[in-house]
Amino acid sequence: MYVAVKGGERAIDAAHDWLDRARRGPPDQPALDSAQIRDQLSIGTARVMAEGSLYDPDLAALAIKQARGDMIEAIFLIRAYRTTLPRFGASLPVDTAAMQVKRRISATFKDAPGGQILGPTFDYTHRLLDFRLMADGELPADPPALPEAAPDQVPHILSFLNRDGLIEDAPADDAAPPDLTREPLELPADRPLRLQALARGDEGFLLGLAYSTQRGYARNHAFVGELRIGTVAVEMDIPELGFSIDLGEVELTECETVNQFKGSKTEPAQFTRGYGLTFGQTERKAIAMALVDRALRWRELGEDDQGAPAQDQEFVLSHCDNIQATGFLEHIKLPHYVDFQAELELVRRLRAGTADAAKEAAE
Amino acid sequence: MMSPENMQAFRRDALGLLARAKPARLAELLPVSPDHELLRAPEIGTVMVRGRAGGTGAAFNLGEMTVTRASIRLTGSGTVGHGYVQGRDKDHARRAALADALAQDNPSRIEADILTPLRSEEAARRAASASEAARTRVEFFTLVRGEDE
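C-alpha cells for the assembled complex are given below, as produced in the milestone run.
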C-alpha cells in the first residue's frame, strides 16, 4: 500500500523566511553589495563562473550572495539560470596567444621571451593573517606608471619547443566539438568532450585526482610549461552581418604542461602535453585540469593502463560535475519514508527468522 | 563613400568597440536616440565560448557567456543596425545597434563622436594593465659560486 503524505508548507515557508534573515545577518551591519563580492571576492566569483560554466561576473556575485557563500549552491543557481537562456551560437575558438596577460610564468624556461610576469599572485606571500585587513587597512599608494612600454602580447612558450619538434604538435582542428550541455555524456569521450567536462568540473575533485597522479597513480611527471592569466577577445560569426565581430572579452587562465616523453625505435622521443583552460583567475583549477587531461590521454599516447583513477575516464567524467554529484548526494536527505519502511520490515522478518532458527537449534 | 570592404572592416571594428564599452559610457556618448523601430527587441542569451586543446589544437566547448542582442531600423534613412554585446544590458545592445546604423549613414561623425573616444579609453585601460603587469616582471640575476678564478 502506498500512502501519499502532504504537509509541511507552513514549516517550509518559515524556513525560507529564516533563511532570508540569516542571509542578511544582523541588520545593524551594512548589507553586502553584490558589486563588492564581484570586485573584492573576485577569485570566488571566478570559480562560480568556471564551474557554473557561464561567464558573467555580476550573476556569479549575485549567486554567491544568495547562496550565503556556499560555492556549490551558487554554481547550482548559475547552472539553473543558464538553462533559461536561448543560445545565440558558438564563438570562434579564442586565441590565447593574443591574450593580454596579467600573469605569465614558466617553470621550464627562466628566460622565456616576454619574461616571467607574476601578476597579482598569492605565491611568495607568507600565509600569515594580515590583521590590517580587519582594521580597515589602507591601500598602498598607486604605483607610478612605468616609463617603458609593456608588451601587449607574449608568445606561447611551448611554441618554441614545438618549432624544434621536441614536443608533440597540436594541429588546429575546426570540427564542431561535441557539447555536454546538448547531448548526454557518452563514453568513450574524445578529448574535446573531456576538456569541456573538466573545464566545468569541481575544483576540489580535480585537485585530488591531479595530486594522485603526482603521487604515483599514473605518474606522467608534469612541468608547468606555461601558466597565463589575462583577457582574450571572444569573436563570433554573425549571420545577419555576414562577418564576425568581437562580442566582448573574458578573463581566462590557461595552463600548458610539458610531460614525460614518448618515443620508439622509429620515432624520436618527444615531450607530451596536458592542457587546462578555465574562466577567470582560477589557477589551481587550470593546473589540475591539465594534469588530469594528460592522465586521461594514456590510450592515444600508447601508454599502459595502470588502473589509476585519473586514467579512468568513466570514473573521472562521471564524477567531476559537482552539481550532478551534490544533487544525488543531497537527495538522500529528502523523505524516503516508504523505502525505509520496506527495509525496516525486511530486517524485522530476517531477525525473526534468525530467532526461530536459534530456538530450533537450542531445542 | 567607403567601398563595401572598407565599410565591413569599419563596422567590424566599431561593433567590437561598442560591445567592449561600458554600457554607461556608451549612454554618455550616445545620449539621444534618433527615431527608430526595433526589428529585434533586445534579447538576452548566451554564446558558447570555444577554446582549443593545447591552445592551438582541436576546438572544444569551454563554457558559455551572457550576450544581449538587438536590431533596429532608423526611421529617416531606413538603415538597419545590429548590436551584440557581452552581458545582460538591453539598453547597451539597443544603443550598439543604433550606433551601427548611424555609423553606416555617417561614418566620420560616429567615428569622431563615439568610436575615437572609446578607442582611446580602451587603449589607456590596456596600457595601464600592461604597465601593472610589467612591474611584476622578474629580473633574474645570477649568483656565481664555487667557480675557479
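The first strand of chain A starts at residue 54 and ends at 55. The longest helix of chain A spans residues 337-362. Further analysis is deferred to the final report.
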